[in-house]
């Protein structure tokens, strides 16, 4: 007797103990099968194909009826009795469905990084083999008109996922591509008007307060009485890049989507938009929220967007303005956030997150457009200590900085530097031979203090051997 039965998903058959997907010929059908048995086999094959077609049509009808990716996930999770997730190309989960406990269990597997990003760069696509946990998840690509648009991932709790499950996911991926294309088309139109409004608001052209609030509300945004401007810029300068324009555009769109989703997870009505070189968000603030709390929120958002840096993600620096209480102050706050991002990158390197109030004297130093002029200032002030040609130079600069910061309190500086009092006295004498009488000349101390601050800004501390010719 020939045993032919649909598998649990209805997407394939198990013929004589061998898994078979629709469209695949049965392996070595025994010659001893009688005509009635062959007819029965053919009938069940046709029924399985019809069942698969019905599943595909039901999923397609969800999208045609205006359903979202979340609706598609729910339907697929019910059909497969698994957790189903849809991710972006870089692994950020944008829709999921299934038992809540099973979702948490899936998110705790090695397939995700601590920020919740699915590790697309490590997870294989299609059928897999190995230990039980490994084969209980399966991934397929969502291919759209512009290439790979994302992934569909299934997690089973108590069974291995088969080729039939993979086949159903692949059929579902074509439906998901249609849903993504529709969402992108709608988003593109909405983004155009949102970007125009936000650009006008940041330039002070949004009209009166009442007009700006009403316009923002019509776009699904809320402008509050107290907010900060947050600017995120990729550390890679796209003006000078080896990448082609299409790749740059795709990377910037991915960067913008990541910020929009991260901010939207907290509050979908927060204005956030991606421009050609940056992301801008207007974060609402409760009355009297402290700077530390503001920075904690921004740091958490940046952590979510950054993930572990995988999946083709680029590093970025973030600047935060002072709080404002009037829409008319948006241009000023925007300039502050831009300045904070740029100076933070110069001072701390890639990935810096900087509040405008942290800049201090760096606000003024960053206004000097010619970095070569700043280098010359450092060289004139610090002389041979301006370079790292000698290992001792950095050590002497640290001693000088601590002395200036402690207002020439030798005892306190000795304690901070872990030097004997007489050792520090010897170093002070050496510094004065190189720099001049800074212990008695307040103007010289000011010059040296500024030179040390300039030197802290990245890209300015070069040795004479590597410095560009002037």
TrEMBL record:
<feature type="domain" description="PucR C-terminal helix-turn-helix">
    <location>
        <begin position="397"/>
        <end position="454"/>
    </location>
</feature>
<protein>
    <submittedName>
        <fullName>PucR family transcriptional regulator</fullName>
    </submittedName>
</protein>
<dbReference type="Pfam" id="PF17853">
    <property type="entry name" value="GGDEF_2"/>
</dbReference>
<dbReference type="InterPro" id="IPR042070">
    <property type="entry name" value="PucR_C-HTH_sf"/>
</dbReference>
<feature type="region of interest" description="Disordered">
    <location>
        <begin position="1"/>
        <end position="22"/>
    </location>
</feature>
<dbReference type="InterPro" id="IPR041522">
    <property type="entry name" value="CdaR_GGDEF"/>
</dbReference>
<dbReference type="InterPro" id="IPR025736">
    <property type="entry name" value="PucR_C-HTH_dom"/>
</dbReference>
<dbReference type="Pfam" id="PF13556">
    <property type="entry name" value="HTH_30"/>
</dbReference>
<dbReference type="InterPro" id="IPR051448">
    <property type="entry name" value="CdaR-like_regulators"/>
</dbReference>
<comment type="similarity">
    <text>Belongs to the CdaR family.</text>
</comment>
<feature type="domain" description="CdaR GGDEF-like">
    <location>
        <begin position="205"/>
        <end position="343"/>
    </location>
</feature>
């Amino acid at each position: 007797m020939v045993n032919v039965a649909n598998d649990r998903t209805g997407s394939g058959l198990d013929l004589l103990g061998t898994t078979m997907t629709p469209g695949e010929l049965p392996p070595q059908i025994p010659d001893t099968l009688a005509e009635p048995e062959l007819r029965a086999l053919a009938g069940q094959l046709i029924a399985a194909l019809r069942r698969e077609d019905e599943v595909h049509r039901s999923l397609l009808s969800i999208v045609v009826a205006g359903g979202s990716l979340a609706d598609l996930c729910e339907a697929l999770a019910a059909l497969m009795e698994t957790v189903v997730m849809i991710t972006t190309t870089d692994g950020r989960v944008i829709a999921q469905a299934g038992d809540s406990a099973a979702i948490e269990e899936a998110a705790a597997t090695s397939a995700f990084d601590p920020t919740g990003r699915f590790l697309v760069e490590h997870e294989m696509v299609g059928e897999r083999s190995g230990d039980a946990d490994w084969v209980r998840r399966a991934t397929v690509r969502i291919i759209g008109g512009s290439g790979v648009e994302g992934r569909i991932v299934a997690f089973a709790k108590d069974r291995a996922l088969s080729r039939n499950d993979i086949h159903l996911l692949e059929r579902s991926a074509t439906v998901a591509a249609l849903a993504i294309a529709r969402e992108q088309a709608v988003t593109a139109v909405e983004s155009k008007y949102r970007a125009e409004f936000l650009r006008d608001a940041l330039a002070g052209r949004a009209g009166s307060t009442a007009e700006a609030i009403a316009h923002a509300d019509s776009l699904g945004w809320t402008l509050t009485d107290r907010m900060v401007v947050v600017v995120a810029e990729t550390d890679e300068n796209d003006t000078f890049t080896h990448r082609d324009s299409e790749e740059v555009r795709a990377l910037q769109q991915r960067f913008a989507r990541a910020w929009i989703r991260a901010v939207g997870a907290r509050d979908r009505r927060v204005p956030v938009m991606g421009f050609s070189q940056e992301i801008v968000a207007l974060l609402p603030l409760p009355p009297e929220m402290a700077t530390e709390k503001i920075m904690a929120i921004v740091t958490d958002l940046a952590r979510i967007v950054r993930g572990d840096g995988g999946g083709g993600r680029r590093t970025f620096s973030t600047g935060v303005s002072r709080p404002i209480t009037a829409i008319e102050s948006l241009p000023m706050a925007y300039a502050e956030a831009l300045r904070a991002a740029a100076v933070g990158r110069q001072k701390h390197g890639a990935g810096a997150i900087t509040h405008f109030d942290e800049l201090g004297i760096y606000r003024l130093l960053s206004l000097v457009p010619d970095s070569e002029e700043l280098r010359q200032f450092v060289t004139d002030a610090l002389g041979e200590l301006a370079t790292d040609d000698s290992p001792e130079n950095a050590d002497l600069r640290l001693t000088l900085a601590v002395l200036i910061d402690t207002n020439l309190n030798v005892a306190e500086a000795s304690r901070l530097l872990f030097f004997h009092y007489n050792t520090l006295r010897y170093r002070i004498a050496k510094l004065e031979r190189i720099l001049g009488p800074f212990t008695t000349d307040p103007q010289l101390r000011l010059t040296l203090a500024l030179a040390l601050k300039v030197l802290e800004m990245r890209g300015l501390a070069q040795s004479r051997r590597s410095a560009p010719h002037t």
